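Hi all, posting the design record for the shared folder.

TITLE: backbone redesign
STEP: 1 of 1
STRUCTURE INPUT:
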């Protein structure tokens, strides 16, 4: 049985390989660079600040589109990869704002910094670190965004605690992630490729939303929800024909959600527990 540390190391190695463009294994008949490219990813091309060199097709939503970023905001992008969401966020914050990208893959950080250098972007910073223990001071961010990353983290509760810590009072987050309705077959859940492809690390939708509430966030809102249908040529790598038929008839759902929540200010608290 894999431990939390071994799962994290596996994901780090896989996304490091993607950053270095060395991982042929992530290519499949439905797309390259992981299952997210053609199955889960949304199209960023219409968003201002989009940089195709920073788009590795590893997301499952458009959190920056829904994040209500204002000019001058400090934004943190969790699992920033090659910088895709960070550069879109930078366009919204303007020259008076700042974006901090955090990623635990050193090659991803290096790739993101190179993209920033080529674009001559001055107010985007990329920091290497674990989002369960962010290299960020308390009460730093006005807005936090993240795109298909928390599902890869074994200890999601710790991440939401960290998000609460680094958000300013009155700040908020908009996070796109993969969640489940019903239980995935163990053959899929335990497959390393599916884990790194953002499916097998997902938890139940209701559990995900309850984690957010349990960590003190208020005004929790589902900004977007879409069903994810994995192609048969992917599923058949892990399931027999009978298992595949049973899975399709089970009612199990794989969803991409974009969820918004706020860390309220003391003035807006309705009780002593409101702002922790």
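Okay, here is what came back for every position:
SEQUENCE:
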């Amino acid at each position: 049985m894999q431990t939390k540390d071994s799962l994290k190391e596996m994901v780090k190695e896989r996304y490091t390989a993607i950053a270095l463009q060395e991982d042929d294994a992530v290519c499949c008949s439905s797309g390259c660079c992981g299952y997210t490219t053609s199955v889960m990813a949304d199209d960023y091309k219409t968003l201002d600040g989009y940089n195709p060199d920073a788009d590795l097709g590893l997301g499952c939503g458009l959190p920056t589109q829904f994040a209500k970023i204002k000019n001058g905001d400090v934004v943190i992008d969790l699992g920033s990869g090659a910088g895709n969401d960070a550069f879109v966020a930078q366009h919204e914050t303007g020259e008076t704002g700042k974006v901090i990208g955090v990623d635990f893959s050193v090659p991803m950080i290096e790739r993101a910094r190179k993209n920033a250098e080529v674009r001559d972007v001055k107010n985007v910073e990329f920091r290497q670190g674990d989002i369960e223990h962010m290299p960020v001071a308390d009460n730093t961010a006005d807005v936090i965004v993240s795109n298909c990353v928390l599902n890869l983290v074994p200890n999601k509760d710790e991440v939401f605690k960290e998000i609460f810590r680094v958000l300013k009072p009155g700040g908020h987050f908009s996070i796109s992630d993969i969640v489940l309705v019903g239980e995935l077959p163990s053959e899929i859940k335990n497959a390393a490729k599916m884990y790194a492809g953002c499916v097998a690390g997902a938890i139940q939708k209701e559990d995900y939303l309850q984690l957010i509430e349990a960590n003190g966030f208020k005004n929790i809102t589902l900004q977007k929800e879409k069903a994810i249908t994995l192609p048969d040529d992917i599923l058949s790598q892990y399931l027999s024909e009978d298992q595949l038929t049973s899975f399709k008839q089970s009612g199990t759902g794989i969803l991409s959600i974009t969820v918004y929540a706020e860390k309220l200010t003391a003035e807006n608290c309705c009780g002593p527990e409101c702002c922790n």
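COMMENT: The chain is about 35% helix and 20% strand.
Let me know if anyone wants the other runs.
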